[in-house]
Amino acid sequence: DGEVHISELKNGSTEMFWNPTSEVRRQRLKRHIVLFEEQTDFESERLWQHVTSAINKGDQHKATQEKFVLEEEQRNAARERRESGTEWKPLLFRHDAGTNEWRYKYEDLRPWDPLNDIAQFEKDGILQTMERHLSTRMSNHKATCINNQITRHKRSAKDCRRRKTSDQPSNHSQNTESSCSTPESVQELSDDDGKYLGFESLCAQCGKEMNHLKEIHSAVLSLQKAQQDIHR
Prior knowledge:
Number of helices: 7
GO molecular function: lipid binding
Helix content: 40-55%
Oligomer: single chain
Region (Disordered): 144-191
Pfam families: Oxysterol_BP
Protein name: OSBL5 protein
């Protein structure tokens, strides 16, 4: 959202390449950071504060010294863990053996949906997205529950028919009634069909998921109100 210039090294001339309008500037993403006073000792802004301060003052020697102090502390901590046999367990990252890289555990790589996504925020190091329609994920989860129930139901019906066939003597009528009584077709199910098949509620996780989303919704509204008060 700033000016970009092209400099011609041969003759030293400079020309404007990009100068965003005020409308473009207004549409930039707002950056929200945790207050410095609320950060823990190992968060980057607090951890590297002395290095940053020295760089901003143009004191490269001081910045190098502060950087060495931090790195030496990290080496000592690693050495102590190695000597005591303590395993380092990252909270927010996992090691990808295929690429030999560290990946953020809770990364969300789906495209941003401006019609449904309201805000993305971090809580306890975990990125979460506030969605406009809370029912979207619930609908997907409900559909998954139904499909799982249908699969189990079909498998049960198939096993029942197999037992029915194998238990009959070769000269016995195939019309003999079996202990299994299962509808032959379960291609389409409604909520009432679920009760017919014997499972009143789809999944206990549905209720937990909805309650969790409501808690997130309340938390985001509280944050937004606080931000509005701060801006005022």
